[in-house]
Input
Amino acid sequence: MAVPMLVDLYYVNADWKVFFFCAFVTAYFGGTMIFTTSTKSMDLTPKSGFLMIFCCWIFLSIFSALPFWLSELDISFCDAFFESVSGLTTTGSTVLVGLDTMPKGLLIWRAILQWLGGIGIIIMAFSVLPFLKVGGMQLFKTELSESEKVIPRSADFAKSIGGIYFFLTVTCAFFYHQTGINSFDSIALAMTTLSTGGFANTDASFSNYTSYGPLIVASVFMTCSAIPYILYLKVLHGNTTAIFKDPQARLLLKILAVAITLIALFLVYDKGYDPDWSFVHSMFNTISLMTGTGYSSTNYGIWGTFPIIILFFLMAMGASAGSTSCGIKLFRFQVLAAMVFSQIKKLLYPNGVFIPYYAGKPISDETSASVMSFVSLYILCFVLLAIALAFTGLDFITALSGAMTAISNVGPGFGDIIGPSGNFKPLSDASKWILATGMLLGRLELFAILVLVSPHFWRR
Output
């Protein structure tokens, strides 16, 4: 909170007092927790791990909402909490309007929330979730162990990943600046691009840029951040082909290439759009939605049914585990496909023994069940969120796309209200609380929250 406070002081905005007060309150409560637990020692059990993850993200969201709530924006705590959750979960949905004239401190605060949320989910994906066996994430225990041969401690592992994340952010800001974007916006956009968060400094997102430069820079770095960060670590330690050998990274690039080509061809031959415009905007918006960033360069809601269906499924699919992106994650589809092919072979050859593989290694029954449970629960939660949103009075398209964009942590939905040209501000408080819950569910891989409502969790 010191950074936006200093920014507001530099631009002579009174909100610096708000950030100072919020920093003091947050430091007081955080410091109290540190001092009261510093003499205690305990092992991280699965139960305490789930509880730690839940409490961290809930309390961070609450304290991060304070600057929005107490600032000159004069918004309700519901709106402030929604914006805070959207930032930390790197969703990118916003209830704020007038971003073009908003104080710089609040703009950089939104970017900081997404940037910290992005690195937080990367570290959690490799340091916590594999050992809690959430949704098949135990597959990545091996990758973490291999990396720890070079970097033995988890803290050093986090520092290494954080260094890569910081370097890519600085590089992205440099290239944004080279396209003509001012220094402040370049830094803020770089932070929300590498976190695949999607908060922009203008209400129009990327549609106010007349050149293709910013769109191309964003597309490149959104893709970079959708690739597992542990692969960059392997490249730095001599494995230069790690990215091209990784099954998630290869599948991500293939899907993006096919989807971008199909949508661009549709826009050219069915809609009659200019080929260059069609390719650049289909590339930018396809990458933005599949990686869960949520930027928009145009109102893709009017492109037609064919592109919308593709984009809707890409929103749900998401990108790679171990990246800043969201959604179901590609590795789960790969595990399911391996299981399906294995079952087909068993039907054809009843006496044969066929074992599904992922990345050249056999998939255990425990991992298979975990992945299937996650996908089933993901679909169930999506349906329940859509029904709950419809119950608050939202139309079918808004409720359906709102549920998907929340649980997939994407940002904009479809329709006139929350589409790429809309905003979440007109929604009722009930809808916003439901969407905030969906964002947290999606970001924390469902089980990390839902396990807490089980009576078995609280038994000794």
